[in-house]
Amino acid sequence: MLLQLVFEDQWSIPVPMDDRLGEALGVQRERACHDEFDLAFVERLSECFANSLAACLDPDLQLPTDSQVKYAMDIARELGVSLPADALRFRGAAHDFIDRFEDVFRANRERRRRLTSPPGG
Predict the structure, then answer these.
(1) How far, in Å, are 14, 31, 110 from residue 26 at the CA level?
(2) Which domain of life is it from (predicted)?
């Protein structure tokens, strides 16, 4: 049994399946058609493929972590710099943004801490 992922009719990726998986997929497809759960199965399969595909991307193309997004937003807000949209979409862009402004951000926070802390404290 041959299964392929096709991207914009320009790139196809064969998905290896052993006989057992091919048979199980065939049974699942029959169940979906007979029980009128076709849409639910397609949605579930679609979500699984999307999650698996996302996990296969290079690390810099993964979603940024929640911590990266929060830190990048704190930097942008405090320093008054614009946060590139890609920094909210890609882990590598978030890392680059943080790396570019982190030293200034920390120095700014330290300076502000010194100005607001009581003398001799």
Answers:
(1) 17, 9, 62
(2) Bacteria
Tell me: the pLDDT tens digits for 58-117? 999 999 999 999 999 999 999 999 999 999 999 999 999 999 999 999 999 999 888 888
CA distance 85 to 76: 12
- Same structural domain for residues 8 and 52? yes
Domain that holds residue 89: 66-116
Is 24 among the domain residues? Answer: yes
Helix runs in 2-90, H state only: 19-34, 38-56, 66-79, 85-89
Assess if residue 121 is contained within a domain. Answer: no
Same domain, 11 and 48: yes
The two tokens of residue 6 are 């096709």
> What span, in angstroms and rounded, lies between the C-alpha atoms of 97 and 104?
12
Q: Which two tokens stand for residue 121?
A: 């404290």
Q: Is the pTM of this model over 0.90?
A: no
For residue 86, being part of any structural domain is answered with: yes
